Amino acid sequence: MDVAPYLSGQLLLSMPGMADPRFERVAIAMCVHDADSALGLIINKVRDDIDVRSLLEQLDVDPGIAPAVPVFAGGPVEPGRGFVLHSPEYEGQSTLSVGGRWALTATLDILRDIAAGKGPQQWLIALGYAGWGPGQLDEEMTRHGWFAVPGDSALLFDAPIDSRWTSAYAGAGIDVGLLSASAGHA
């Protein structure tokens, strides 16, 4: 059952009172959502143990001009797997266009290009992802848990990290202070 058009290129926001603490107050950039699966990257939680330059060094990539910006905690699935969410003008090996709004690349080539100053204009690097099996996210969307808003590149790449969840709700005209942590029942 389709709850809404597929969510690739949109932001998925957890609702207050989310039962799973791993997803409390998260904003997820949805990169893949079809009948078989869904994959997104959390864009408002960072890892405290590593920055981009350190990650590049661990991968034996010369950090070059790459800034020492945070690496995002992309989600609980495969936390050692890396992804680069970036502006759509860059196309590398295996780059996936995401709803025409941004792109996703998960190869070392993009990291080398970022370090050399030849990468995308805007980017963030995440380790791990949020993933759902066939129909799982569609079913979760029918319960109290998730709210989808149009994707916004400025929110992904320019907004302060700790305000992305509330800013995404505000962009939809919603004051998170007025949201209930429990669902109503008729």
From TrEMBL:
One annotated Gene Ontology cellular component of this protein: cytosol
Gene3D superfamilies: VC0467-like (3.40.1740.10)
InterPro entries (alphabetical): AlgH-like
Family membership noted in the UniProt record: Belongs to the UPF0301 (AlgH) family.
Entry-linked PANTHER family: UNCHARACTERIZED PROTEIN YQGE (PTHR30327), UPF0301 PROTEIN YQGE (PTHR30327:SF1)
Protein's name according to its UniProt entry: UPF0301 protein DFR51_0236
The organism of origin for this protein: Sphingosinicella microcystinivorans
The organism's taxonomic lineage, starting at the top: Bacteria, Pseudomonadati, Pseudomonadota, Alphaproteobacteria, Sphingomonadales
